[in-house]
Specification:
The two termini are 18 Å apart. The protein has one domain. The relative contact order is 0.14. The protein contains four helices and five strands. Helix 1 packs antiparallel against helix 2, helix 2 packs antiparallel against helix 3 and helix 3 packs antiparallel against helix 4. 64% of the residues lie in helices and 13% in strands. A hairpin with a 4-residue loop joins strand 2 and strand 3. The chain is of the alpha+beta class and 223 residues long. The strands form two sheets. The chain has a three-stranded antiparallel β-sheet with strand order 4-1-5. The protein has a two-stranded antiparallel sheet with strand order 2-3.
Length: 223
């Protein structure tokens, strides 16, 4: 049973690492690209207007409903017109700060703090995952410290989702005051529920390991 549980645990942690690694790679690429853009703008003539520039990740929903294709574009394959429906968009606006109210500035500050928190979680998660995998390879599956690490991973995943949701919410609230797209309504992105499910699964798995460890300990004492 221990060997089977060890294999399942290792497989689970590998899948978990791949999923989290994909999210980390995506966010790191956003950060790196944003830093490069900011640095280049600071070294160029755009320096004066840099503080007034805003970049928004927005989700869109057609005003007429799903699959109504309100946007017309040119198909580059044969230069023919085609109807499209845009689900998300990244926009850059200038002079955004001058149009913001005090509430929007506060929301922007909270977004920055939440961003710092998500960076911490992105560093914390792979470190904890590596420690759990290392313990498993050393046959320390039922170690109490290992169970605590799994719990911390589960709670961190849930906190990561909550922070991401509020980041999306603040982006949505800010963009709603300064962005309008013809034929679309701005839509609140609820985030990736896979992280929530994964966090709950990790917490359940930790509790299963705890119960199994207790049963194993009782069995050893009985013998």
């Amino acid at each position: 049973m221990d060997k089977r549980l060890k294999i399942i645990t290792l497989a689970f942690m590998i899948v978990y690492t791949i999923i989290i690694g994909g999210h980390i790679k995506q966010h790191v690429s956003y950060f790196v690209d944003g830093f490069k853009k900011g640095y280049q703008a600071a070294q160029s003539e755009e320096k004066a207007s840099l503080s007034n520039t805003g970049v928004f990740f927005i989700s869109l929903k057609s005003e007429e409903g799903l699959l109504t294709f309100p946007t017309e574009m040119i198909n580059q394959a044969d230069n023919s017109p085609m109807k499209t429906e845009i689900g998300c968009m990244v926009v850059e606006l200038s002079e955004v700060r001058n149009e913001m109210s005090g509430k929007m500035i506060v929301a922007d500050v909270f977004s920055f703090l939440l961003g710092l928190f998500t960076v911490f979680v992105m560093i914390f998660l792979p470190v904890q995952a590596f420690r759990v995998v290392r313990s498993i390879t050393k046959d320390k599956i039922f170690d109490c410290a290992n169970i605590r690490k799994l719990r911390s991973i589960g709670y961190a995943l849930l906190a990561y989702y909550v922070a991401g949701f509020f980041l999306n919410f603040f982006q949505y609230r800010i963009a709603a005051h300064v962005v309008q797209v013809d034929g679309y309504m701005l839509h609140l992105d609820w985030g990736n529920f896979v992280l929530t499910i994964l966090g709950l699964v990790v917490l359940i798995f930790a509790e299963v390991l705890k119960i199994t460890a207790q049963l194993k300990e009782e069995q050893e004492l009985t013998i």
